[in-house]
């Protein structure tokens, strides 16, 4: 039995990213239903099968319960899948993680408004106003507080990667996209998000998931994405490839990419293009690449 999750454009919908990470990063199977933002697709999809949801993400459980909002999704998944580790097992760390998630869910309005999530570009600056700088200062304060409370030895805030970190993933992308000024400790946390396997998959899909949304376009000078540099793959014509079946679906090859002079095939353009965007984000592809 699998969950259903309604999401918006992967390149832009920060709430959708957060909701999807609550599944993928914790190994919970989910079927996504994507609806284009700023069209009637999302309200129609929600009305047709996800009432009373009004926004992306909205989850439907295997037994048919519709759960909107990421806070509710996180808690419901944690209740149904305690083995997945969405929240820390230690009571103190768990309490800290829930504090962090709640503040992220409700706060940081200036940062959200001035720096909407856009995974397709990175700018040299966004000229952040004082309210955005204040939000960044608050982020650094609570991130440092979480580490001091939990004694987290690794890159994450409360020990192992938890729902609290999933909630801050869209903030990490904003810092990366808009080159926002944060201290080295905070930037190390951002870099951990950019390198996280689930985030790399989401961003790779977001880079090829439909046309650019004009609402998010800015005129600031651009720079390279500050996360891991992808392998230099490119889409090519034809169907000749080393593999006869798509590494994701097992279906016959119809679309091909080239990487370091070798050709690999996929069952559709999206499978190919998300792999071109970041080959190392996809373990099934890397398995045949290294074979």
UniProtKB/TrEMBL annotation:
Residues 3-85 form the GST N-terminal domain. PROSITE patterns: GST_NTER (PS50404). CDD domains: GST_C_3 (cd03194). InterPro entries: Ferritin-like_SF, Glutathione-S-Trfase_C_sf, Glutathione_S-Trfase_N, Thioredoxin-like_sf. This is Glutathione S-transferase N-terminal domain-containing protein. It comes from Neotabrizicola shimadae.
């Amino acid at each position: 039995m699998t969950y259903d999750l309604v999401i918006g454009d992967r390149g832009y919908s920060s709430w959708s990213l957060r909701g999807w990470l609550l599944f993928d990063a914790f190994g919970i199977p989910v079927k996504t239903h994507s609806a284009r933002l700023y069209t009637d697709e999302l309200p129609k999809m929600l009305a047709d099968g996800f009432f009373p949801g009004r926004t992306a993400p909205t989850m439907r459980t295997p037994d048919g319960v519709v759960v909107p909002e990421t806070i509710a999704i996180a808690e419901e998944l944690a209740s149904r899948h305690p083995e997945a580790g969405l929240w820390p097992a230690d009571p103190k760390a768990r309490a800290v993680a829930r504090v962090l998630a709640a503040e992220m869910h409700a706060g940081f309005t200036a940062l959200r408004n001035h720096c909407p999530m856009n995974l397709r570009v990175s700018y040299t600056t966004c000229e952040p106003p004082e309210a955005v700088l204040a939000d960044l200062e608050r982020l650094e304060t609570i991130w440092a507080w979480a580490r001091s409370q939990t004694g987290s030895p690794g890159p994450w805030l409360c020990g192992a990667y938890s729902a609290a970190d999933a909630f801050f993933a869209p903030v990490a992308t904003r810092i990366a996209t808009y080159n926002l000024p944060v201290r080295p400790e905070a930037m190390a946390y951002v870099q951990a998000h950019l390198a996280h396997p689930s985030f790399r998959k989401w961003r790779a899909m977001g880079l090829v998931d439909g046309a650019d949304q004009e609402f998010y376009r800015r005129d600031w000078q651009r720079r390279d994405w500050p996360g891991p540099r992808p392998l230099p793959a490119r889409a090519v014509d034809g169907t000749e490839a080393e593999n006869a079946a798509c590494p994701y679906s097992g279906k016959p090859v119809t679309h091909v990419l080239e990487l370091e002079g070798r050709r690999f095939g996929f069952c559709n353009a999206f499978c190919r293009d998300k792999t071109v965007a970041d080959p190392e984000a996809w373990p099934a592809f890397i398995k045949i690449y290294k074979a």
